[in-house]
Amino acid sequence: MDKTVEAFVVGQEYLLDARLVKYDAIASIAHAKMLAKIGILTQKEAKELIRALNEIIKLDEQGKFKISQEQEDVHTAIENFLTEELEDVGKKIHTGRSRNDQVLVALRLYYMDNLKELIRLAKLFIKNADAFSSKYGSIILPGYTHTRKAMPSSIKLWTGAFIESMEDNIKILEFSLVLIDQSPLGTGAGYGSPISLDREFTAKELGFVRVQNNPIYTQLSRGKFEATLLHAMCQVMLDLNKIATDLIIFSMPEFGYYELPQSFTTGSSMMPHKKNPDFLERLRASYHIVAAQEALIHNLAGNLPTGYNLDTSLTKEPIMKGFDITEQSLGIAALLFTKLKVNKESCKKAMTKELYATAMAYKLVESGVPFREAYKKVSAEFK
Predict the structure, then answer these.
(1) pLDDT at residue 190 in the model
(2) How far apart are CA 189 and CA 283, in angstroms?
(3) pLDDT at position 13 over 90
(4) pLDDT digit string (tens) for 177-202?
(5) In contact, 280 and 247? CB cutoff 8 Å
(6) What is the rounded average pLDDT of the residues 115-125?
(7) Which of 50, 176, 297, 341 is paired with 146 by a 20 to 30 Å CA distance?
(8) Averaged pLDDT for residues 154-181
(9) DSSP code string of 146-181
(10) Residue 125's closest CA among 87, 91, 169?
């Protein structure tokens, strides 16, 4: 291939695939065992392949397994390594496989690990937020609607909202985990294999709960599943976006309800007094980046005919970017709740009379005054 064309077609694939070396090797080990089970490989050949694949995993852990642009992707790099090491035995590993089902299974294993990490971080967030609430929860502060004082709120009420929401987010992440927990290995290029493979065996070896049966659907699910995962991440990031916005506003000296840890703030290159909430601004903006990745996936997957199309290879970068940003953001938000402080005096000072207007109206209602009349009577006091 012309080098300029090759660079365009391969793009960032070979660099992104560095994350998939371990997963592709693990899937190849399961495939080698299955090929031995159905008589394509001898037990000796399978053992040689498994030994070499475990060597690849060790090299990858040490940062010594490299993928070149000429190899295009992790699958070719691994097959080339096996062929160099084992000659004809290495050439047998691709029997019954296509790079299409190889990438699907490697990505599913990668997704499952990252989803479990997100669930772990979400639970840590809840734990730390709950501890923060236990420490400061009794403090009352204004609640706002339309960015104007509305009714009394509390630190417990504010924190509890995000705890409950994160509990729902975990359910969405867990559903996503259930959705992708199906093995595509053995579906080839999307139309199955001419030889009879034991797909149940490889699914069990890899820890999948079930097999994804229809080979065409395995290809259709690429993009569809990634969009679902990114949607789950967007739910997490939306909460973090709102937390960041609240803390940016209410840690301003003009409010002073919250006090950001100094170690989380940055200075100005010009103004010596500044303590900027840069990390919160980045956290707020990061939601939009993850949301953009979801939109990108939908656009890449749309309008494609049934069967594999190279367009779907471009879904790798958005999903990996989404995981990176969400994991990092959730981790720093969980850490923040261990350092964040509440200024009780500032909160108390802000509890002005109008916050109790609704309670005043209902006090009249309890004495028999119709609500609308009570509403007008109290309203007149604040004009």
Answers:
(1) 94
(2) 40
(3) no
(4) 999 999 999 999 999 999 999 999 99
(5) yes
(6) 98
(7) 341
(8) 98
(9) TTEEEEEEEHHHHHHHHHHHHHHHHHHHHHHHHHH-
(10) 169
Least confident of 35-44, 66-75, 123-132: 66-75
Amino acid at 143: G
Contact of 322 with 114, CB cutoff 8 Å: no
Pull the structure tokens for residue 342: 């509440």
Buried-exposed string 49-63: b where 16+ CB fall within 10 A, e elsewhere? bbebbeebbeebeee
Cα torsion 372, 374, 377, 381: sign: negative
Segment 315-353, tens digit of pLDDT:
999 999 999 999 999 999 999 999 999 999 999 999 999
Tokens of 91: 């050439």
| Direct distance between the N- and C-terminal alpha carbons of the chain, in angstroms, rounded to an integer | 78
User: What are the structure tokens assigned to 137, written together?
Assistant: 């929860």
For residue 375, what are its two tokens? 């509403």
Residues designated as active site: 146, 268
Q: Which stretch of DSSP H or E encloses residue 78?
A: helix 74-86
As given in the structure block, the two tokens for residue 356 are 């109790």
